[in-house]
Every structure is written in C-alpha cells, then in structure tokens.
Records
---
Amino acid sequence: MYATLYVLSCILELAKSMKAVGQKEPIVIDANFNIVSGYKRVAAAKTLKWTEVDAIIDKTATAQNLGLKIIHSNRQRAKSAVTKFNEINFLRNSSKLNTNQNSSNPIVETASEMSSKIAEELGISLN
C-alpha cells in the first residue's frame, strides 16, 4: 500500500543514521503485520541486514482503514506534487467506496470520518 502512495527516498541516509544510533522510533504495524508507519525504517534496516526492528501493534488498524492510517501517519512530511496527487486520489477513491457501503457498519463510518478529516488537513474536498 505504501509504495502506491509514496516513493522511498533517503534510505541510505536513514540506514547510516540507524547504524550509528540505532532505531530511535518503533515502527507501527497492524495485527496482520502490515506496516502502518515505518516503511523507510524497515527499508533502511534491510540495507543494514538487520533481522529485527522494534514495533508496536495498532489494534485499530484494519484492511478498511490501513491506507488512511498510512496517510495520516505521514501527514507531517514535506511532500512532492506526485505524492499529494496520490494521496488525494486514494482519499477520493476511499470516500467513494465508503459511501457505497452499509452506513451502519462502524468500520466504514470510522474510515469515512478519517477520510474526511485527512482531506480537511490536506485542504481538499472529496466531493
């Protein structure tokens, strides 16, 4: 999912830093071991041939909201126009899917609310 939204960059710089000071922040994964936050740290660890990284499990991450959580966890980053475009397209598609689902499903409602909140943070409309 991350690769469709973001380009992995600066991996070698991060690997150099991680080699010198270790992993400062744990990655965040869902219950199925999908990475919610920390793709670059994992890629850097792989270049260092590390077999383990520190991680915490986000028990609220689901297949329905994983992409939204990934975007939300990367909200503070400086982003290229391509990255912003990818996020906007993902949010628009996610919003369309959510409106076609049963609105009594709490996961769908949460995903829809999350889409709206992230879109608001990005300053875009999903309509």
---
Amino acid sequence: MSAFVPLLDMEQAERLPARAREVVEYRKSGLSLNHIQGCPLDCAYCIRHTYGLWDQRQPRALMPDVEAVERLVSHRYFQAHVTPVQLLNRATDPFLPSVRPHTLAVVPEQVPTAPRTTCLPSLGTS
C-alpha cells in the first residue's frame, strides 16, 4: 500500500528521539502500534510531547503499513488471538483525514490475529 502521509526517509527517522522510533511498544494492556506520528490538533491531553514530538504537527509515517504490521506480529510479546492491540494512540489521531486510510488498512491486516483492537480517536476530529 502506498503512503497517504509522507514517509520519512532513514535519515529523518534516525533524527527522531529513540522512544519515537519505537513502532511497537509494550504496555501493561497489550501492544501499541504507532508507525505514524504527528498531529495538528494540539489536544490538551495529548502525550506526544513525552516522545519528543510536540512540535511535529504534520503526520509522518516511519514505515509502510505492511512493515509495521510485520513488526507487530513478530514482536516477542505478541501472541496471536491473545494480545490486545492499540492502534495509533500515542502521537497522532487515528481518524485524521490523512491517517484514516492507514488505520483502516492496518486493521484488516492484524484483526485475524488479535482478540481486540483499540483505536483511541480524539474528540476533535470528524
């Protein structure tokens, strides 16, 4: 699938803070897939500043959707049909117009292997 948001090149990705480069993140509640980062909404509750991304307002992809899903399902804590998965909930809104196609593309790729998928959209998008 081609990118709907600009894809960072290797040099741009390497300039990101280390935590921002983590595409799959372990959380007590499961795994979080965050291969797209950046959001123009500036929601008061946003946590992207904790990843050094507060000024990144334009969504950017760290890698293609298919590669992100491959990293998710090959993660050492991923268990098919067991591990809860959260999508794009760290540094973007999964339903921004430019991000939504990625959200919808990733869901069919990983839903057959995950018991539940959680998307946490902002209240400010349509």
---
Amino acid sequence: MKIKVAKWGNSLALRLPKRLADDLGLGPGAIVEVNQDGTRLVIETAPRAKFPRYRLEDLLAEMDRLGPENKPKFEEWGILPSEWPEEDWSDVAPKKDLQGAKPNRRKGAKRGTTGRRRA
C-alpha cells in the first residue's frame, strides 16, 4: 500500500486509511512505536490492555461459593442526610422583603418600555 507523506506544521505525517486503522485497532490519540530499520519505517501498535469482563452469573456463583459468612454488610445509599451549612449566606440569599415583590415601574408605564424613543 502506498501512502503520500503530508506536511503537518513543521513535521511530516502519514494518514492511515480507515480500513487499516480499524484492522489495527487504532483511533485518535492511540500510541504507536515508530522505528527506523535502514530505509524502512516500522510502525508497531502497542498491545491493547484487556479489561476483565464479568458476567452476573459468575459473580453470583462466586458469592455462593464464599458463603453467607463472607457477605458484605448492607449500606443504605438512598437519601443521605445533609445539614444546613454553618456559613453566612445572607449576601447571596434572597431578602425576605423582596420575595414575591413586583418590579418598580413608573406610573402609567407599559411593560417592556424604557421611556426612551427609538432612533
């Protein structure tokens, strides 16, 4: 396969066709090893980290194998208690006398008017 070398800033770049990148498991941000072997350029992909996959059946079987004496204690994760903060929030809290108050308007002014004429 022949690929054209392109300029990328002060460096040179090779653009891999999608099919080749997919076959190698490469995507944006992937790390590869690049070596020079005479006039050959060798690009090696890093081995992919394999994450363990668990099936619910296997996890339940392991719990049965360990027995009820190794069962973890129950922890309630529902509604967690929260306490009111001790700090003073009066500078950001709404004032009691302003709650539900209507905005000040000039007498006879219509909503959305500023009293200035448009140019």
